[in-house]
Batch of 2 targets.
Target 1
Amino acid sequence: MQLNDKASIRRALAAATCTLLGSASQTSHAEGSDEKWRVDTSVLYYSEQDRVTVVEPVVFLRKTTGEDSFVNFRLIYDTMSGASANGATPTNKPQTFTSASGTSTYTTPAGKTPLHDFSDQRVAVAVEWDKPVDHLSRAIYGINASTENDYRSIGLSATRLRDFNDKLTTLTLGIAGSYDSVMPIGGAPIPMQLMSAAVPSPAGGEGDEGEGGKTKLVADAIVGITQVLTRRALTQFNYSIGYSSGYLTDPYKVVSVIDATGATLDYRFESRPDIRLRQSLYWKTAYHFDHDVMHFAYRYYWDDWGIHAHTADLHYRMELWKGAYLQPHLRYSTQTAANFYTYSLLNTSPVPTYASADYRLGDLTTTTYGLKLGIPVGRTSELNLRVESITQSGNGYPADAIGIQKNYDLFPTINTTVVQITYTGRF
Amino acid sequence: MLARPLFILLTLLTLSACTLAPVQPWDRDLLAEEKMQLIPDPVENFIDEHIYFSKEGASGGQGVGGGGCGCN
Amino acid sequence: MTLLRRAGYWEGTFEAMASPCSVLAEVASAAEARRLLDLARVEALRIEAKFSRYRQDNILHRINSSGGQPIEVDDETAQLLDYAAHCHTLSQGRFDITSGILRRVWRFDGSDRVPSADAVAALLPWIGWDKVTWRRPHITLPAGMEIDLGGIGKEYAVDRCALLLAAETRASLLINFGGDLFSTGARADGHSWRVGLDDPSATGSASAGEIEIRRGAVATSGDARRYLLKDGIRYVHILDPHTGWPVPGAPHSVTVVAGSCLEAGMLATFAMLMGHDAEKFLLDQHVTHHVIR
């Protein structure tokens, strides 16, 4: 066997053997496994202190429809109630707010962060088909839809995965699009319009006057590489880009208009740009310590609204007895504010095109501590319980607060508790 | 500005794939365990993605096509 | 099928692929050892049934009796055919799964009945992987040709069983199918498994030595009891598909240690096919080996 590099026969042979056995180990899975179904039933209880409470039952179903082919089904029912901050700042007098159509009002006592009550139910379904295309590629196609009192969404997604390098490297390409429509309760306000200028409409119908139904188109794409590093380590690196266009403003949020003494005079309905370009770099690694497994992820996000965010996430699964585990979770995320984010607007300043006081677009730090306990049920099933504590904070006393604003916490810390119980059955 | 660190990271990843000894099929025992999936618990992952999507300005990174909601 | 308790491990044996097969497992309980043994036995028998040329009900028979028609094969068969094609290229045509029909004229039973040149030459038109059309997933064998996966079947079975069992247990295992073996790792006390090497010229009695194996495979290509002896010339059962005659100067046996049984077995086969140059080939490949002439 005359080859330029004599030892390359062995390498070529090792590679060919790897391919044969590597793919062999994939086919054995489907042959040997009896479990066709995987069902996850879960209930989530989410509660922000003094704010929103959500109870959400969830069902995930996964059916094996053939050798390496699956269908995934997802059904979510959300009930949300409580109050969320409407963006106005607390002040020394009680405050009254009206909807865009002027038909409904609510008030906040003096000194309290203004919140608006709401109650909503949401139903979301999704179906996904996951199957091999050839012996090196897979395709996943999905459709999803959701509906709630004031929002509807329908979307499609397609992802392609291809293996290289004896299945040690996988390239992922995905695209998705969705079409959302918003029917705000009380109508969609004219952006930056003064609340005092909102008039009750003669017809009184909801979502009909001003600009009634609004729409939004979202397109997302992702490209990623997953690489097996060692027997114990797997890593993934993704780049994502997303483009949203349409009605991106929150119709229920306002920005306080204050005077030189810091007193609140009026409010303007917030306004956000009607396009948003989002990008992120995401890196995740899974590491196996013989019994325990650790997952670590980091994401850097930036968009054309000026938001930059760093997020780090760590899960450490500690094996207890056979099949049982305890998993602490730590997440830390910080973001810089959108360039149109502001605590309030000064009445003597020119009215900006875009402004929002929604704390979720501000300089925000989110810290999460969580713990999850998993217990095996029978040979193939599991029951798990997780509890998480999320704290969101920002600067409540900015240096440029004016007059009486300085007496109030303009960015109250929000503490949230999450409790989720899940039963995963395989049969 | 971002292109430089991105390029370095991608190069490192590609190099690591070439220079690390390839993992043989019989050495993929640990990797095949369900808890070693990059998303080991799809329900937990979905719920968390949804929570942080509605509570923060940043979102995404892991995949596409989760579906929209009025929560943001 | 038997299961015996040894010092620190369980030894299970069964018969498959016309060879004694054993699975040595360093597990604590007999139930666990039996479960692993069963898994290995079922897989070995499955592979044997699927690729044996002695059966009329498998994909191999369908291919060999296709009369020139294309046959669609499943993924596993396709992977094996890809592998055989690759080995054919790497060995510059010396490894050829269509050369099995030579067994019709060559009976390696230790006698002196060497076939005539004409008898051998008559078979050559039906030998040659180049004559086969393999376009995954369809294989077209010209009428009269046959493929034989015997040269890789046992090694494939060892590696497959190793994969399956390694997914079931962290314990150290040694799988040995008639001398082709794979070990998943050093034993719990840090020692290696010790396997005796068979001396082809004195099978059953004296052993040619011992191999210590921690993680990896050992395969042997040898002519034990499969040769012809005429006029002082030994004709080994390793045939050159281009000529139809045994490779001149082939050693008695070649044993190779490598990462997988398939790799070890194929390197051993390649070395045998190199005849006089067997040792040189193995040295060039930088692989642990043992050659007996």
Target 2
Amino acid sequence: MNIKALLKSLRLRKFATGLLLLQLSLTIGLMVNTVILTTSAIDKLNNPLGFDVENLIVVDHIPTSGAFRDPSYFRSIAEQDLAKISALDGVVSASHYNQLPIQRGGWNGNLQAADFPDDGVLEKYLRYVPQFYASANALENLGVEIIRGRALNASDDITKDYYTPGKRDDIEQNIVLTESVAKAVFPNKPALGELTNNGRVVGIAKDFSITPGHPGNAKYYGMFGNFLFSQPDREQHYIVRVEPGQLAHVKAQLADTILSVQAERDILRVQSMADRLSQFYSKDTGLASLFGILSLLMVGVTVVSSFAHAHFHVTQQRKFIGIRRALGARKQDIMIYVFSENWLMSLLSSILGIGAAVALNIGLSQVITIDKPDILLYCLSVLVIFVSGSLATWLPAYKTTKISPVIATRTL
Amino acid sequence: MEMFNYYLKLSLRNLSRNRLFFSLMITTLAVGVGVFLANIAIIKSMSADPLPHKSDKVFNISLNIWPNANPSPELLPIMRYDDAMHILKNEVATHTMVHYQTQVYTREVGAASVTSYQAKVRATTPGFFPLTSAPFAYGGVWQGDHAKQVVIGDSLNQQIFGGGNSVGKLIEVDGKPLEIVGVLKPWHLKPLFYHPGHRQAFSATDDLFAPIETALDNEWAINVQSLSTERINSVSDNRGKNAFFIHAFVQLDSQAQINEMKNYLENYSQMRKDGGDFLRETDNRLLDVNQWLELNKVVDKQMLAFGLATSLFLAVCIFNASSLLLARYHSARFETGLRRAVGARISDIFYQGLVESTLVGIFCAILALVFGWLFLQLSLSLFPKLENTSDIDGSLIAIGIAIALATSFISMIYPLLKACHAQLSTTLK
């Protein structure tokens, strides 16, 4: 194969060749970044969260009646709800929560040692530690293990004191911290038994993902207290843990079960925790899907261009191909000649594609978080371009083999 | 005109003679324009000016006051009750309003059905309505800070009363009656500039508007953003405490008013500092509507990223069309040569090519609008939260047509020039 001759032939069609090279390299660039976005979205969805996501159902609801402004009524209904839900077939346990894991925003507050100096500067994410006020079994219900100390129990419930006039200011609640936040608040000593601005630490729970958007260990920061906050204008949350395989069966009954206790509630959502996770990352998966569709379209357009380029070339060079055939070139020689031109184009574009992939990655990183391109993804994209280009060139190449050597004599 | 008709006929004949070729070319170009257009539909709506007649005169206020030592320099968009009340007292602004967001369930007093309707509530002050140009269909604003009166939006009016003039009717919240004193017309505000944070920029306007004092008296919770540095025992307990939850906006029609307002805020900060509060390193901030929306990053980052990709895709489609056209003109060079030989000038060939490119552009525009709509539906199904962000209006259709014509022209220009400048002698030989 004469590379020089091929390059010379391509140079004769500078404009068309240049356009195709640009197309191929931009397609490689887009494909590399699409795969990065897709793998990143898949990684996020498949990252172990540290709790029993597969067997949990979340119910979000809100009272519609003023009767719920009475904290004791609010509490009585919540207790009846949980008792009735727990009695359903297939339910392992159920708890109430003021907020849910896998969240953005939420109910956060600063968490610091009780003796933290007034003018001290707290680490950023310790100023926004998710504060969970929930049932005593809230962590067990999620499938989170207590690794030191003890779990919360009924004696830790501060609800009654909180709503008893005059008692609120004297409450010193018992809390459980996740391992990471305990280490961050008490870096030089064990947190167990220590007093924080939010209560005394009686237990340390294994880390689990609470705020997945936070960096490093801050995503595991969380504080748990046993308290039912009666705020009827806000969404209330129940999490129901079910036996494996019972999710759909239990989910279908939850709304009616809750409304059968007290009908004046608006059931906003009943969804599995897995669905909540998918929804949490819906923007990432949505963007990856859009990029995927665009990449497919781009490959399609590039195939059309490769086909047109080869076809155009063959039409233009019918006479010369005829001469080559007359001079003894075999059909497969001619076929390889047409293919090799496409392969050469793919090779050149794969070099330009490095620049396109990096430039697009830099451009995208200005607006979204995206990983850096890696060599494997690049090779994969180049392979797609080689294969699709070869397929697009096959028909013009095959037609070329049908050019008779007689053509050479006809036009001379 | 006669020549134009002739060229048009010629172009149509060309298109019909090379049906497969032109349909391939028009389709790829239309897909590129359509995808680009769908993206523009979303970004255009997200970056729209919600108050075009006075967005440079309406300002958000962020104060630099903090109750504890060593505050971070970053300003909060929310302020305390006392701060908000002080801002309301100003005599500088044309209109001033403060607000917080809450939510209630409501129904008509004495309704046979027990069904209550969820209502997003803006607990605010009378200045809200002239400042946001909220359109009243009936009635007006409440009288008195603690009045048990409300203004309702069109959709809540439709839900509870089936529409019409509901002024004077009573609704109840938690069993307490509230009199309707005003009903708004259907009101679309995109983005919702007075509360764009917390993924609310493209939410519908509120269902119910109530005096802020009445909302606090009734313990209507702050359900979006609040922050406190001390224990707050109830919603009404937020008054006078270090609880940050109120947003403030002013309308300042002249530079003199802006300067005066800056002084007013500065004096207030100093007064609070003298009273024991601390000031952040950053100055008090007045941002007009568009600056405020920019700060809140209302344009979705994912859509901007996708915008970059769709631009590249459009470029690839143009390259593809151009490449196809080059092949087409090359194969038609004998015909072009013949026309030149029988007397056609280069300008005539170019003019005919231009007519053909316009015709291709028109077909491409029609197809691009269809692809654009389809791709928009696809984008919205993948990003359900963007449902309220895209409007296909006249201006967008005009943009689509213009892009299709322009891309068709760009694709055609080089191949056409090449065809025009082909050596006559070579072609004829």
